[in-house]
Structure formats: C-alpha cells, structure tokens
Amino acid sequence: MKTVMSEKGVSISSKLKSALYLYDAYKNKGFADATRTILHHKRLMGYLTKYVGIPVNTADILEIGCGQIPKQVALFHKEGANIIGIDIDVPTYRITVPIFLKIIRTNGFERAVKSLIRHFLFDKKYFRDLSREYGQKVTFDKLDTRIMDATRTAFQSDSFDFIYSNVVFQHIDNVEEAVREVNRVLKPAGIATINIHLFPSLSGGICLEWLHPEQSPSAKVPPWDHLRENNYPVNIHLNKMTINQYREIFRTHTNVIEEQTVTEGERFLTREIEDELTNKGYTREDLLTRTALFIIRKKL
C-alpha cells in the first residue's frame, strides 16, 4: 500500500519531527486522553440506544478500525456486549517478543518501534486514567480483535446490531467495497455510524502542524499545503475523496438516515487560496468541512 502522498517522499528530518510531535502529543494527553475516550463512548452508546433500542449486553457490535489500542472494544466488552474490533494493524495493548515480531512482519519495522516506545512510556498511565474516568477497572484481557480488511470481512450477512468507525474510512482505498460490506453484515434493524476525516479539509492532509487549526494554527506550513504544493508530505495513506464522493457511495449502497458535519478553517481560507483550489476542482464545502458522520441503516 502506498503510504506517502507525494513523490517527493518524506525526509528523515520530517520523520524525526513527526516522532517528536507524537511524543509531545502523548505526553500531554492529546493522543491518549481518557476523558475524550469516555465522551466518545457515551456518544456511541447514545446511538445504540436511540436507533437500535436494545440493551448493550445483548448487542452484537463491530468496530471497523479499532486501532492498536482498542479502547472502545474494551469498554463495550466491559459492559457485556458481544464486540469485535477489526484493523489492519496488530493490536499492541500488550507487547511480547512474538507480538513485536508480528508487528514488524505485518506493519513494518518503523511502526513496531513506535508501538514499543508508546507502550512502555504511555500505555500504563493511559490504562489507569481510563479506569479512573470510567469508574471501574477497564481491562484489555480476552478482547476479540482481528486483523482484517474492511473491504473483505469474514462475517456472515446480518451479523451486527451496531457497527461504528471513527476517522478510518479516509485511509481505505476501495471505500465502495467497504460500505457494501457494512451494509451486508449489518442486521436489518441495526445501525451503523461512520465518521470520516475529509481529505480536502484544512486538517485533512494529517499534517501535524494543522491537526487542530482553530486551537494551534501553523506559522510555518501554508494552509491547505497538501492540496497545493504539498511541500510537507506525511507518511500516511489517504484516499483523497471529497464529501460528495462519500455521499454518493453511502446513498447508493445504504439507507442514510442522518448526516452530521463539523467545519473548520474559514478564517484561513483567503480569496486567493479559494480561487486556486476551486480551479483544482474543490468546492468551498470541501475545503471547510473537517468531518462527516453518516448514520445509516441497511439497504435491503
């Protein structure tokens, strides 16, 4: 899988700067914030209650893109749900020599080293914080996590009451096949919530200096650099789809019952930048919409 958004590649110095940024983000809880984890869990529980209306301990749930630390899988498991998390990354909530070697084989040496550093420097504290915020001890034992491609799952049709995914679909090449799979394995009375970080947005290039433009805009990297010169490419694979492309796919293959969007960056969108990017085919909505949440039911 191609991981670099530019033929220029990513320099060693950029990788080092990225590693330092990640270290600082974990150290200051930006990427390991137990409070935000619990708030997100409450939102997910709200969708299950509102749209499916069954007790969590009777629900069959699937998370697409559970990540190396399947936080929500652990919380739903704690509450008695039959929860499965899938991802292309090896889970690293515990690391042994065999697991470390498996990460190297599956996800590469660089990812393995990052996972090892994160595990020993930050994971134990995060797990303690998560249990404190939740009010009970949250464990990562006996979780059902599987390395699986979202476009070709191994589940039977009509398997899940609730399917959710948070900022993962922008990393999937064949989004149409992934959405078909969601529709296939979703139960007729079930619900799926797919939240997508949109590539054309100000933060959509995943440049670390623009991840939070309203709170900490970059003084170095030009806004929307990933759509313009792309002088600061990142080592992350993104499919570059626009919101209307996602809309067409979801509306074709599922029943979309609600769409929610979050905007950002209007104060950085000068007339010159807008004209430049309009000429490249991007709309104002593309440039200002950070995320889109599709709440969907099965199309029979």
Strand elements, count? 7
Q: Strand fraction band?
A: 15-25%
CATH class membership: Alpha Beta
**End-to-end distance, in Å?**
33 Å
Helix residue percentage = 25-40%
Main pleated-sheet profile: 7 strands, mixed
Order of helices and strands: HHEHEHHEEHEHEHHE
**Global morphology:** globular
Looking at the overall shape, the CATH architecture is 3-Layer(aba) Sandwich
Q: From the alpha carbons, calculate the radius of gyration and give it in angstroms.
A: 19 Å
Structural class: alpha/beta
Mean pLDDT: 90
Q: Which oligomerization state do the chains in this entry correspond to?
A: single chain
For CATH, the homologous superfamily is named as Vaccinia Virus protein VP39
Tally of alpha and pi helices: 9
Briefly note the CATH topology name: Rossmann fold
Task: Characterize the structure shown.
This protein is an alpha/beta fold. The chain has a single domain, classed as Vaccinia Virus protein VP39 (Rossmann fold), CATH 3.40.50. It contains 9 helices and 7 strands. The N terminus is likely disordered.
Briefly characterize the structure.
This protein is 38% helix and 17% strand. By secondary structure, it is an alpha/beta fold.
Outline the secondary-structure elements:
Blueprint: H1 12-27, H2 34-52, E1 60-64, H3 71-78, E2 82-87, H4 97-107, H5 109-134, E3 144-147, E4 160-166, H6 175-185, E5 186-197, H7 243-253, E6 255-263, H8 271-278, H9 284-288, E7 289-297
Parallel strand pairs: 1-2, 1-4, 2-3, 4-5
Antiparallel strand pairs: 5-7, 6-7
Helix pairs in contact: 2-5, 4-5, 6-7
